[in-house]
Amino acid sequence: MRALCVALAVAIAATTGMEGAAPAQARSSLEPLRAIVAPAGNDARVIALGRRLFHDPILSRDRDVSCASCHPLATGGSDNLPRSIGTAGAKGDVNAPTVFNSFLNVAQFWDGRAPDLPTQVDGPLTNPVEMAADWPMVLTRLNASDYRQEFLSIFGEGPTPALVRQVIAAFERSLATTGSRFDRWLGGDDGALTEDETRGYALFKSYGCASCHQGAAVGGNMFQKFGFFGNPFEERGQTLAADLGRFNVTGRESDRYVFKVPSLRLAVWTPPYFHDGSVADLREAIAMMGRYQLGRDIPPAEIDLIVAFLATLADPQRLEGR
Amino acid sequence: MKPPAHLRTALMVFAAAAVVAVVLAVAASRATIDAERHSRVVAAFDALAHTETSLDRDLLQVVAGLLPHYDTTVDHSHELRRLLAAFEAPDGGDLPAGLLDEYRGRIEAKQAAAENVKAVAAFVRHEISYLPFAVTRFAAAADPAAALRVQQALIAIESLGQGDGSSRTRAEIDALTAGFLASNDPELRGIGVHMRTLTEQQAMLHDAIRGYFAIASRAALEAARTRYMTAFAQRQEGTTWLVRLLQWTTGGLFAGLGWTISRLGVAHDAAQRARGQLVDAVTSLREGFALFDDSRRMVLSNLRYDRLLAKPVPAEDFDRMLAGMDTQGLATVSREPDVGADGHSALLQDRRDQRWYLLRTHRTSTGGTVCLFTDLTDDKRTEAELRKLTAAVEQSPIAILITDADAIIQYVNPRFLQLTGYTANEVIGKTPRLLKSGEVAQETYDEMWRTISAGMTWRGEIVNRKKNGDLFWENTTISPVRDAAGRISHFIALKEDVTLQKRNLDLLLDANADNERMLFAASHDLQEPVRSIRTYCQVLERQLPAEAGEEARESMAFIAEAARQISVQISGLTAFSRAGHPVAAFVPVDCRAAVDTAIADCRALPGGDQGARLAIGPLPTVLGDPVLLVMLFNNLVSNAIKFRRPDVPPEVTIGAERDGSGWRIDVADNGIGIEPRYLKGVVSPFSRLHPRAVYPGAGLGLASCDKIAKVHGGRMWLDSEPGAGTTIHVWLPSEST
C-alpha cells in the first residue's frame, strides 16, 4: 500500500508539473538515479599497465586490433559502429557497449555471460571474430616484451592470465564518468540542470524508464526482457541467435530475449543502439523503448526533453582519452 | 681436539632442544596460520550469511517498492561471488567442498531468481507508477461512471493479494480488465492492457519472490559451516595435543640443558681454578716461562718472561725464535746441544743488563711448546768464585786434603802431591793412613779423632811418611765440614811441612846452650885471673917503695881500676846469663820481701844509699824464681838511684796494680829521664847512654831485667820524661796462672 501511495504521489506531481520542493542539498535517497562514485583502492601502476595493455594490439592474433579498437575512449568507450570489426576485418555479432562505468554492471556482455570484468577479458581475447588470440600466445608475446619486466616489478612474477585479466579490469574500473551535470544536480546543485532537462528527468521517471534504467549507471544493474508489449524481432521479420540474449547463457525459457539493461550514461554519445546496433537514432530508440517496453507512445516533444536529460548524464569533455 | 664428554652431551642436548623448539615454533606458527585462516573462513561464512541477508532484505524492499534502484543488489551479488571465490583458494583443503558446491549452486539459483524478481518488479513498478497517471488522465476526460469503474478497478488491483477479505478476487479483476480491453475507447483499452499486465506481473512477482525465498541456501551454508567447524575443532584438538607434547619435550630438554650447563659451569670453574693454580705456579717459577699452543699462540706466560720479552716471540722454528729474541735484546751466545727431536736450548745474554740466560724449549704432548728461561748469571758468578777458590786451593803452598765423613780421600791439591810424592790416582779413594809413619803414638790419633768427630778442629804436629819412605813433620789442622742438616760430611786437612823449621829450632837450641855454657864458663873462668890481678895490685901497692914515683903509683891505680872494671863486667855477664835460667821451679814469691832484700843489697854496695827516699806500696805475691826476682828489683832500684839528678835527692816509688791476668809493678824515680828515641834501645845488652865515668855499670842491668820478665812469662817497658824521671813497668802473670 505504501508503494502505491509513493507511486501515486510521484505520478500526480509529474502530471501537474509540480515537482515538489527539491531538497536544498542532496536529493532524496528515493531518487532512482545515483551519482557515480569512482571506485577506490586501485594501484596507479597497475592502472597504467592496464591502460597500456588496453591500447596494445599485442593481445590480438594478427597484432592489428586492441581493446581500444572497438572501445575508443575518446568516442565514449565505443566505436559507434553497429557491430565492431575484429582482427582480420571480421565482424562481431553484437554492438560494442561502452567500457565507461562498466564496473557498475551486474554482469558483462549483453547477455551477461561474464559475471565480472576480469572474466570478461577472455571473451574478446579469444573470440575468433574479435582478437582471435589465446592465452599461451599472449603470454609468450608478453614474456618476450618489456611487459615481463613491468609485471615482475609490480607483482614479483611474470604475466599470467589471471594477472592480465586483473590488470585490464583494474584499468576499466578506473573508467568512471564522475562529475556530470546531472550528478551535480543530484548533489543539490539546482543550477546544474536546465528546466527542460529537469522535466526530461521527470518524464524519464514517470514514463517508467527509471524502473529499469536506474542506479548510478542508469541501467546495467539488471536484466530485462526486450519486447514486452509486442515482439520487436518478430515485427522485424527475423530472429538471430544473438537476439535470444540471456537464453544463450542460461538456457531458461524465461530468459529468451532477455538482455542486460544497458547503462544510459553515455547513450547520447554512443550510437547506434540496442544489442544489434540496429537503431542509429536515439529518438527512435527511445520511441521503441516506449512502445515495446512501456506499451506507450511517447510524444516527440517529450522524447526531446528526455534526450536533453540524457545529455546531462555525462560530460564528454571529462572522458578519458579526450 | 675432542671436546670433553659433558660438553658433547651439552651440545647434543642443545641440538635436540633446538630441533624440538624449531618444530614447536613451526607447529605454533602453523597453529597461528591455522587460527588466522580459521578466522578468515569464519568471517567469510559470516559475511556470506550477512550479504545474503542484505540481498534478501533488498529484494523484499524491491517487492515492496521501497528500493528505487538495484545498485545495492548488484553490490551484494558481486560480494557473494567474491566471497565464494575466496573459498576456492588452493589452501581450502579442509573446507567441505561438496557442501560448498551445493551452496554455490543454490546461490547461483538465488541470484537468477533475484534477477527475475528485479525484472518483474521493474514492470510492476513501472505499471504502478504509470496506471494512476493513465487512470487520472482518463477520469478527467471520461464520464463519471466510467471513471469510477476504472478507479475502482485500479484500487482493486492495488489491494489484490492483501488478503483482507474485502478485496476482490483475481477473477473479478480479470473480468473488469477484460471489459476495458473490449472497449472501443483506445485509451480505456490501453488502461486495460496495463491493468492486465500489472495483475499478471504482480502474480509473477509473488511467485518470483516465493521462488527466491524457497531456495534453501541458508541451510546449505549452515551445513557447510557446521561441517567446517567440526573438522576444524577435530584438527585443532590434534594440533593442541601435538603442541602440548612438544612443549613438554622442549621443557624437559631445556631442563636437561640447564643441568648440563650447570655441570659445564662446575667443570669450567674447576678448569679456571686449575688454570689459576697453574698461573700461580708459573708466576712463582724462578725461570721465565711461556706456554704456546699448537697454533703457536701464547697461552700463558709469567712476569719474568714478559720482562725479558716485551713482545712474545711465537714458538716456531728455533732459529727464527732466536732471531726474534735477538731483536728484543737477547743475544744468542751459543747454541746448546738439542735434547731429543723437540727440545732445543741456547745460551743467551741480555744486552741490557748483561745477565745470562739458558733458553730451553720443549714440545708438549698436545703439540704446544714450552719456553723456559733460566737465569744463569748467579751460577756464572758462583762458577767464577769457585774457580778462584779452586785456584787458591790448587796453588796453595799448604797441602790440602779433603775426605768424606768416612775419611776416604776425595781431593788433594798439587802441593800435597808434591809433598808426599804420590800421584792423585794413588791417594783418591784411600784413607790418610797411607801416610802413617808409625812414629806417632796411637794416643795422638785417638785424640785427633775424638776432637774432629765432636765437630771441633784439631791441631797438631805429626810425623808422616812420604812415598819414597822419607819422614816429614807436618803441622796439621783438621776441620770438619758440616752439611745443611748439620751432619759432618767432609773433613779438610791443612798440612804444613815443618820438617825444616823443626830442624832449625833444634840447631838454635843447641847453639844457645853452647853460648850459655861458654858465657858461664867465661864468667867464672875470667873472674879468677881478674881477682888475682886485683889482689896482686894491692900487694904491689903495698910493696911499692914510698920513693917510687908518683908515676908508678898512678899506673898501679889504673891497673887496679881496670881490673875492678873487668870484674864488674864479668859479674854483669854472669848475672845476665843467669837471668835466662831459672835456678829452680817457680814458687810463690812475695815481691815485698824481694824488694826489701834488693834494697838491703843496694845499700850494702858502696855509694848505694845516697840519701834516697824510698816509698814502697803494697806488692803482690807472684809465681817465680826468688833469686831472679831479687836480681830484678835490685837492678831496678839501683838504676833508679844511680841515674839521679845531681841537684835533687833521689826518690823511688814502688807500687803494683792488677792488670789483666797479672800484675803490673811500677818502679818510678825522679832522675834524669831518658830521651824518647832511646826508650827502645836502652834495654839491649851493653847499651849505655852515658859515659861509664858518670854512671858506672856493665850496661847489662835493664837487659837482664827484660830477660827476667820474659822468663816469667811477662814483659817490661819504660815511660820517661827527660829531666823529670823514669818509670819502669814490669808485668808479671799472677800467681794463679
Descriptive keywords:
heterodimer, A: 322 residues, mainly alpha, two-stranded antiparallel ribbon, 14 helices, 2 strands, B: 737 residues, alpha+beta, six-stranded antiparallel beta sheet, five-stranded antiparallel beta sheet, 18 strands
Record the SSE blueprint.
The complex is a heterodimer of chains A (322) and B (737).
Chain A: H1 2-15, H2 44-54, H3 67-70, H4 117-126, H5 135-144, H6 147-155, H7 161-173, H8 181-186, H9 195-206, H10 209-212, E1 223-225, H11 232-236, H12 247-250, E2 258-260, H13 282-294, H14 300-310
Antiparallel strand pairs in A: 1-2
Chain B: H1 5-63, H2 71-87, H3 97-141, H4 144-159, H5 170-181, H6 186-214, H7 217-284, E1 288-292, E2 298-301, H8 303-308, H9 318-326, E3 330-339, E4 343-350, E5 356-363, E6 369-375, H10 377-395, E7 399-404, E8 409-412, H11 414-420, H12 424-427, H13 442-453, E9 458-465, E10 471-482, E11 488-497, H14 499-543, H15 550-579, E12 587-590, H16 591-604, E13 613-616, E14 621-624, H17 626-642, E15 651-659, E16 662-669, H18 701-711, E17 715-721, E18 725-733
Parallel strand pairs in B: 13-15
Antiparallel strand pairs in B: 1-2, 1-6, 3-4, 4-5, 5-6, 7-8, 7-11, 9-10, 10-11, 12-14, 15-16, 16-18, 17-18
Helix pairs in contact in B: 1-2, 1-6, 1-7, 2-3, 3-4, 3-6, 3-7, 4-5, 4-6, 5-6, 14-15, 15-18, 16-17, 17-18
Uncertain residue ranges of chain A: 1-24
Main-sheet strand order of chain B equals 2-1-6-5-4-3
Strand percentage of chain A lies at: under 5%
Question: Mind summarizing the main beta sheet of chain A?
Answer: 2 strands, antiparallel
Largest sheet entry of chain B: 6 strands, antiparallel
Strand arrangement within the widest β-sheet of chain A reads 1-2
Distance between the termini of chain A: 49 Å
Integer average pLDDT of chain B: 84
Average of per-residue pLDDT values of chain A: 87
Relative helix content of chain A: 25-40%
If interface size is counted as residues with C-beta under 8 Å from the partner's C-beta, which chains form the largest one? A-B, 48 and 36 residues
* SSE-based structural type of chain A: mainly alpha
